[in-house]
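Narrative of accomplishments. A recurring question from our advisory board has been how the design workflow behaves on a single, concrete structure rather than in aggregate. To address it, we present the structure tokens for one chain from the evaluation set, followed by the sequence designed for it. No filtering or post-editing was applied between the two.
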């Protein structure tokens, strides 16, 4: 067995362990974090948790090699999306091998990348590294990249200037240099209940919400029609959709409440808030119209999440590094989905997305990863070790928190 094959085999063992921890975002990831801490400790590598405010979840940071500038961050999220209601052929929490593929929740998104980093620990620990390799594992990526800000703040505070952040989301081991941002809002319309025949005695929250929803429908069509034809994104330009609507209790009651959630996805450089100016004006009008009739009625808008877009960097250090490690000479690529890359970039770090597995498998029932992807990931980690032992003068940056 070649050393790359050995690394891939070990990574599959670790992946099997990682998938066994049900780290659906709504639940704690601390058991998985404890497992990673034990793996690190076995090679004498210190790590530290960056917990969420409630203490129920944690990010994990570890540094292998000298505490010197010019290090690389291997970044990944530990949480996975739910399996509820999905038709799985085999147990989603048990890695199952069929036809050269490994099935299980998180195999592509993105526990294989974590497994490769963990499997490579003895190589990292034994190598005469000139610059450090940092592990940065986060929680709550799948529910709006909520854990990463605490992780990034701690990295910026505690680690010498960093050359590159490699975010190991599934990209078929190709460098992805940009992604859209997401802003999502929850809108609560409160009306006044009455018998549905007595429309003059109440105010239907549903009917008021429809005014706002039809505004958003028009806006989504306008955004699609006005997209820059030269945009590298698919779909081009900003997109908007209403993911959830809950309103009313019965056909013969004027609805007391209607709640809906929408998300707006924007290309780098777009101002999400400015795109929504007209919507907020509509909210003000609907709110005032309700309010003048019944004091307790109205519209409340809350922002649920804000994931910054990730823009291709001119001559980006991280992109060049990932391309060299993955042997990728392809064209510039961008992704329509959002990840933590925009957050690392916003903090000042040169960043790229590159990891094993396919985004097409992510979030699906019977999620899988091709074993060949793990093998390519193993080769990537081996080249990373070599690169970090070279005397490469890489520009490094100290990140800025918040
Ligand atoms: Zn992911």
């Amino acid at each position: 067995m070649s050393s790359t094959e050995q690394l891939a085999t070990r990574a599959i063992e670790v992946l099997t362990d990682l998938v066994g921890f049900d780290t659906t975002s709504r639940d704690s990831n601390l058991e998985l974090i404890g497992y990673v801490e034990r793996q690190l400790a076995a090679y004498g590598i210190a790590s530290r948790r960056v917990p969420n405010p409630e203490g129920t979840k944690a990010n994990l940071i570890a540094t292998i090699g000298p505490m010197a500038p010019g290090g690389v961050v291997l970044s990944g999220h530990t949480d996975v999306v739910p399996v509820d209601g999905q038709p799985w052929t085999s147990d989603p929490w048990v890695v199952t091998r069929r036809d050269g593929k490994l099935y299980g929740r998180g195999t592509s998104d993105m526990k294989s990348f974590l497994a490769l980093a963990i499997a490579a620990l003895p190589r990292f620990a034994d190598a005469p590294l000139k610059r450090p390799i940092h592990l940065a594992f986060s929680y709550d990526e799948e529910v709006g990249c909520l854990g990463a800000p605490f992780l990034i703040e701690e990295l910026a505070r505690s680690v010498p200037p960093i050359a590159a952040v490699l975010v190991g989301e599934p990209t078929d081991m190709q460098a992805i240099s940009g992604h859209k941002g997401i802003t999502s809002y929850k809108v609560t319309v409160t009306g006044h209940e009455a018998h549905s025949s007595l429309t003059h005695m109440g105010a239907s929250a549903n009917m008021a919400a429809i005014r706002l929803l039809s505004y958003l429908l028009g806006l989504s069509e306008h955004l699609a029609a006005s997209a820059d034809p030269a945009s590298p994104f698919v779909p081009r330009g900003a997109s908007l959709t209403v993911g959830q609507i809950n309103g009313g209790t019965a056909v013969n009651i004027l609805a007391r409440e209607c709640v809906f959630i929408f998300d707006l996805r924007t290309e780098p450089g777009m101002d999400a808030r400015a795109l929504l100016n007209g919507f907020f004006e509509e909210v003000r009008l609907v709110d005032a119209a309700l309010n003048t009739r019944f004091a307790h009625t109205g519209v409340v808008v809350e922002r649920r999440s804000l994931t910054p877009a990730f823009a291709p960097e001119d001559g980006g250090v991280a992109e060049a590094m990932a391309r060299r490690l993955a042997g990728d000479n392809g064209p510039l690529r961008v992704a329509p989905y959002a990840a933590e890359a925009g957050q690392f970039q916003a903090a000042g770090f040169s960043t790229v997305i590159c990891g094993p597995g396919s985004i097409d498998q992510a979030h699906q029932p019977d999620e899988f990863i091709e074993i060949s992807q793990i093998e390519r990931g193993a080769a990537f980690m081996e080249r990373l070790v070599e690169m970090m032992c070279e005397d490469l003068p890489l520009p490094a940056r100290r990140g800025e928190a918040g």
